[in-house]
Design brief:
This protein has 6 helices and no strands. It is an all-alpha fold. Among the domains are: 43 residues, no CATH class; 40 residues, no CATH class. InterPro entries: Integrase_cat-core (IPR001584), RNaseH-like_sf (IPR012337), RNaseH_sf (IPR036397).
């Protein structure tokens, strides 16, 4: 294999380089989570024979990851169903199924009616601080920055 620039690699994969988030690294944990899921799959090989093997594996993996794998961070939906606007319909069907299960076997649910997972409004690795916490912290943080710059 030979080395390519990032732009060449993205072009060969049909991807577009994004410059919308320069110097922002808070999306890295999402990517790391996806890579861990990939590496822990039973079909992940110890080694790839060639570049074409990597492409073949990744095409199959990302098809599964986006269309079949249920993600706990998005209400046990697939990314495709959420993206395609099917989430509300799926959750409504789950709610009916859970209600039927409750009616038929209430002892299985330890005294509470089961509810389907909800779709989060936002997904965070580290949620931003609330506005009040930021205001309370700001003067102290500014003072510390000034002190460090003078030392």
């Amino acid at each position: 294999m030979t080395s390519h620039s990032l732009a060449q690699l993205l072009g060969s994969l049909g991807a577009t380089k994004s410059r919308s988030r320069p110097h922002v690294s808070n999306d890295n944990p999402f990517s790391e989570s996806q890579f861990k899921t990939m590496k822990y799959r039973p079909e992940f090989p110890k080694r790839f024979g060639c570049y074409e093997d990597v492409l073949r594996f990744c095409r199959k993996f990302f098809g599964w990851y986006n269309n079949e794998h249920y993600h706990s961070g998005i209400g046990l939906l697939t990314p495709a169903s959420l993206h395609d606007g099917q989430a509300e319909e799926i959750i409504a069907a789950r709610k009916l199924t859970l209600q039927d299960a409750w009616k038929n076997n209430p002892e299985r649910f330890v005294g509470r009616i089961p509810k389907p997972e909800r779709i989060p409004k936002a997904v965070w690795i580290n949620a931003p601080k609330r506005e009040r916490e930021i205001k309370d912290e700001a003067p102290q943080a500014n003072c510390q920055r000034l002190l460090k710059s003078r030392l």
